[in-house]
Amino acid sequence: MQRARIIYNPTSGREAFKKHLPDVLQKFEQAGYETSCHATTCEGDAIDAARKAAERGFNLIVAAGGDGTINEVVNGIAGLENRPKLAVIPVGTTNDFARAIGIPLNNVLQAVETILTGEPKKIDIGQVNGQYFINIAGGGRLTELTYEVPSKLKTMVGQLAYYLKGMEMLPSIRPAEVKIEYDGKLFEGEIMLFLVSLTNSVGGFEKLAPDSSLNDGMFDLLILKKANLAEFIRIATLALRGDHINDEHIIYTKANRVKVINQDKMQLNLDGEYGGLLPGEFVNLYQHIDFMVSADKARVLEEE
Ligand SMILES: Nc1ncnc2c1ncn2[C@@H]1O[C@H](COP(=O)(O)OP(=O)(O)OP(=O)(O)O)[C@@H](O)[C@H]1O
Q1: Which of 47, 103, 128, 138 has its CB 3.0 to 4.6 Å from that of 98, i.e. a possible disulfide?
Q2: What global pTM score does this model have?
Q3: SUPFAM superfamilies annotated for this entry (predicted)?
Q4: How many whole angstroms from 66 Cα to the centroid of ligand 1?
Q5: Residue ranges making up the domain that contains 256
Q6: How far apart are CA 248 and CA 238, in angstroms?
């Protein structure tokens, strides 16, 4: 008998998941899973809950929440030898990862249907300084705006909140002096930000890392070198269409390992949350987690 554990964040998004819970449980039961659930109680609780579920032999963990909840569930199991499969029901404010694996957003029952008709696929995740990430990591003042946006504002206006906060911060953004080693190459100089990404859709910029693949063992590394305000606005506009990658201020390349050594104090951003201070070495863990992806996405991944 297959066993599934649903770990859901009751505060996520518009708190819409709970009313669907009986239907969700029933659908997983009908599909042959003996299913139970756990509502997270505070920040970090999904890490513990996921680890316990893995240790108790659940075959599938279903994370219901936003990117923050999936990140925690992954952090709970990524270090274990025997890792259950993961599935995602996206009900958060930002659901970049669910979008990347083809799970429909903001429709709980459709998401469940997609999971149950989908396939497990081995997907890369990232590791840095003992922590794991699923979408993106980065550093530089500009990346800090993701956690300076108050969550109430996030829920109310979604992605727009990031842009507004970004506009407000722009004039105060200072470059930072760094050394970045990536797969044997070295960049040394002042940067506005660097990003190490696993998926191509980041904070509403769907073409920020246009070449990223979910299962090739490589990050997309993007470095934005020192730029003035006018240059920065021009590059951000290009980035909306994915046309930023040939700009002279940008380094955009694939890398399996990225080591960042900072001269100035620099915070690490992991999947949009504060992840401690840099320096750090980012390692791509090749096909480390089995995620249930949509049938369409499974076909695309097989063809890549
Ligand atoms: N019971 C709880 N009370 C308060 N916070 C919680 C609770 N359970 C989980 N959390 C925290 O809420 C954070 C955000 O959750 P999550 O990502 O699921 O939803 P979101 O905020 O709607 O979406 P996103 O993070 O994608 O913007 C998580 O990082 C988690 O630590």
Answers
A1: 103
A2: 0.91
A3: NAD kinase/diacylglycerol kinase-like
A4: 7
A5: 133-286
A6: 12
